[in-house]
Amino acid sequence: MRKNLIFIMLAASCLLVPARPSFGQWFLEAENGAVVSGYNDIQIPGDTVTRFSLSEELKTDPAYFFRLRLGYQWKSRHTISVLVAPLKLKAAGSLDRPLFFFEELFPAGAQLRGSYKFNSYRLTYRYDFIRKGRWQVGVGLTAKIRDAAIKIEGGGLSSTKTNVGFVPLINLRLFWQFHVRWGLLLEGDGAGA
Known about the structure:
By secondary structure, the chain is mainly beta.
């Protein structure tokens, strides 16, 4: 069931969207929905502590998410935008073995509460090198700041691993307006590693 839900969520990332109404050169986009934790195995630090699953050994509830993008377009081909995308998941449960997580040892059977945070803040510049008829294709660069944290609490103990950092990404966008009011939008940021 979980794999089917993940597939549906990935398929939904190819959005059928109404053509953006024109309000001059500024635009505001909003997304929201539900997020379900799939694979979320944790071992911090990676070589000396307990490996456990925040989504399978502890119960992670579905959560609400939203994303906001504010942007400006000029000369019909240049776009700059700022994206704010907070994300937080909460988990609870217990393990039948001791849990050593980032500087703290939690006893077996302790009722644990966990949280997984992965906030994303992005500044993007994109150039649309194709703008012909019903097609728009662009490529650009994104400067991403990730604000991540995993926290485990239980048995009177608490341990938090945070990670804030810069990630350079490539931005790609393809828009096909197949109807006066509707189009297909494929857009994303990515990097190779």
